[in-house]
Amino acid sequence: MFERHLEQVLRAALSDSPAVFLGGARQCGKSTLVQRIAASQRTRRYVTLDDAGMLSAARSDPRGFLAALRTPVVIDEVQACPELFPAIKMEIDRDRAAGRFLLTGSANALVVPEMSRSLVGRVELLALRTLSGGEIEGVREGFVDWLFSSAPPARSYPSCADIPTRVTVGGYPEVVARRTPERRAAWFDAYVTTILQRDVRDLANVDGLHHLPQLLRLIAARVASLANLAEISRALAVPQTTLKRYVALLEAVYLVHRLPAWSANLGKRFARSPKLFLLDSGLAAHLQGIDVSGWREPATRRGSLLENFVFGEIDKLLGWSRVRARLFHFRTHGGEEIDFLLEDASGRVVGIEVKASATLSAADASPLRRLARELGDRFVRGVVLYLGSEEIPFDRHVHALPVSALWCAGARK
Fold it and tell me: Which CATH superfamily is domain 6-127 in?
């Protein structure tokens, strides 16, 4: 069993919040984590609404169902019964003791109207992603905290030789455990079918959902690109208004993420469009038809897949980092681009470039160095993540680091 680094954050939330909602994609490990917590607390009962009997009881008499359960309780896949949320609200208003309800869901709480209306101000929202590199390696990453610190980078890191495997396998626990590309592909095929035919249809009983498999593949082919919905709309032959609703559904079930653009008063015109990513790089690679051997083929878009992988790792680390930062991309209308920017609550900025190469030139750090000059004291550090194995100093604030720095820089056992 993998140790999930979000567990400490989840336990802390239960210590002072009456309800905690843990969202995340199906099969990312939510049930395993909350069952572990329930077992350790002994008095906390675990029920899942994937059980037809439990679901029927909850729907027929929500208040009676909760009264019979008593608290503290885990209710897994709670989005299956929206009727429960008003009853949970009444229970919390009656008794706001900490940790009464630990709820999980494979649909984002913010898109379930009954939940967002009933539990606002009463529930803390957390998100569990697929396994991070550090969780697989057995170390607790501190990369984001290190980025905002004054600590110098190490001079060497573990080899990046297994990065193609990391990128194309991704982080779903079931996929990580499988040993052959064929078995991983079989799992992904079944997974996508289940999500699109079950979870999405549970969220939106609308016509035209047969477009979703093709839409997901189109997005996978465009990961790390600006969200050109007009182009995708033409490819699918569906109106943009419909397309936007479909993309929102894929976001709601934790498959797709739109990364917003960052802007500041730098005297430039900025591209406002978000970038599209899949939340798991293994799924993105599978939908592109790429496995470890395919990574080495000349036509493979290694750069976009590696960028999607780095996005996913940073997104995971933000869930437990001490520094509270937000993630953006940066692009001007003139074409100047930095793959990722992290901005903390005080406005300090870190820039990250991703290069799918084992060698670099000074030009690879130029966008980061220009941003450092323009931001002055707001700029903390710039990092170029690449497929080499050595730290390369471009100047005092900008360094190149191996991709493995994501789970090695600032890590602790």
Answer: P-loop containing nucleotide triphosphate hydrolases (3.40.50.300)
